[in-house]
Amino acid sequence: MRILITSGGTSEKIDDVRAITNHSSGKLGKAIAESFAKEDVVIDLITTRNAVKPEGKTIHFHLIDSTADLERTLKDLMTVNTYDAVIHSMAVSDFTPESSVTLEDLESAIAKEPADLPKALVDIANERTEKKISSDTDHLVVVLKKNPKIISLIKNLQPKTILVGFKLLVDVPMIELLNVAKASLEKNHADFILANDLAEIRDEKHHGYLINKQHKVKEAHTKTEIAELIKEEVMKLEEVK
Amino acid sequence: MRILITSGGTSEKIDDVRAITNHSSGKLGKAIAESFAKEDVVIDLITTRNAVKPEGKTIHFHLIDSTADLERTLKDLMTVNTYDAVIHSMAVSDFTPESSVTLEDLESAIAKEPADLPKALVDIANERTEKKISSDTDHLVVVLKKNPKIISLIKNLQPKTILVGFKLLVDVPMIELLNVAKASLEKNHADFILANDLAEIRDEKHHGYLINKQHKVKEAHTKTEIAELIKEEVMKLEEVK
């Protein structure tokens, strides 16, 4: 059995010294990788420099920074290997910086009433020659553009792989969390979604709901429990395929 | 002898899952701390979770995330302890997120021609109830406001301490780097500024210029050399004080 796991959080450059990062310790991804490694499953792990690293001699590491890196690495790996399952636990930035300008730049752009304001700001940013944005302004304006949704690529690349997606919300009612997870499951043709709420994650305590295609929900309360639950459910589905 | 070192890079929250981070491995701060620890100097080290940690039994750690945390911790420590020197090598974010809105929000705010656009955007952001910004928009606009300059606080708190500041630029001519460092030295009443250029930093290779109040410049070519140079110059100045 060969699987692909993504873990950690992406980081999107603003300039040569600043970036927008998605918080993720990589601890859950580590637990999942170690859980599969115990079964001698061959694992390709796409992760980041700062994420904690799992141990296991069947784990192959692929380090990335940004969402664009992730997309490239994922496509490369899914072109050369066939995966029985893809477990996409990485916290991927939904947006990437497109332009950074001063408030004065923004106001002068607005005064010209451009048809496409984001494009006008990109032009202003491109005219600037410094590689590090000057701190000589009271307000800085960073415009971000939407990143492609990485999870939606996976079933296009390998329709037969078992896809486990993740949905993290912050302090929402359980019913909302499950509904958002169900919508993500359907939209991305996932086999499972692990739904969790940042308000219910603290150290090893980690409350998660694993939802399958039949909308059955199983619960887990720690990172180790979540990792074991995902492994069991993926291996069960793999057997009956 | 007791000194205060800051090391690593700050991280400024955009929302509960995203932050703007300043790149800094903490490797130079680690080298500096270890260099002073060899001389049995007592060290308070303000650093971040992700920064590499120095070893030394005279080092006391103080972990922070944001520039606001840094300001609080630095003021607290400089109130209770007297430092012979403060070595401020942390990469501090010049800006912190003030509001995050969609492009549509920005455009509707502009249409109302507010006297204070940043304030109007703060009001819009405050009306939003979700704790994680929805990804359901093509462009996100993050407005950042200027942070207080931490380095300028140090000599106000302890005029007699020896202050070592850092200036990092990206791919500029050497003469510009030295001029910017000189300006920072005077503005912040620093005793030394370590000037360096990101284009000349790669792994252990790290080109730095240490400028003193008499504008004399000494050069170093690795992190270890920079750390030793700073230690020697600080201890020499401490002796004649």
Summarize the structure.
Chains A, B: Keywords: Ligase. The first copy, chain A, is of the alpha/beta class. The first copy, chain A, contains seven helices and twelve strands.
Describe this entry's structure for a reader:
Two copies of one chain form a homodimer. With 241 residues, the first copy, chain A, is of the alpha/beta class. Chain A has two domains: 2-94 and 148-240, CoaB-like (Rossmann fold), CATH 3.40.50; 96-146, no CATH class. The first copy, chain A, has seven helices and twelve strands. The first copy, chain A, has helices at 27-37, 67-80, 103-111, 117-127, 151-157, 174-187, 223-240, and strands at 2-6, 11-13, 18-22, 42-47, 59-63, 85-88, 95-102, 139-146, 162-169, 192-202, 205-212, 217-222. In chain A, a hairpin with a 4-residue loop joins strand 11 and strand 12. In chain A, helix 1 crosses helix 7 and helix 3 (103-111) crosses helix 4. The mean pLDDT of chain A is 94. The A-B interface holds A 11, 14-23, 50, 91, 93-95, 98, 103, 106-107, 110, 117-118, 130-132, 135, 137-146, 168-171, 198 and B 11, 14-23, 50, 91, 93-95, 98, 103, 106-107, 110, 117-118, 130-132, 135, 137-146, 168-171, 198. Strand 3 of chain A pairs antiparallel with strand 3 (18-22) of chain B, so a sheet runs across the interface.
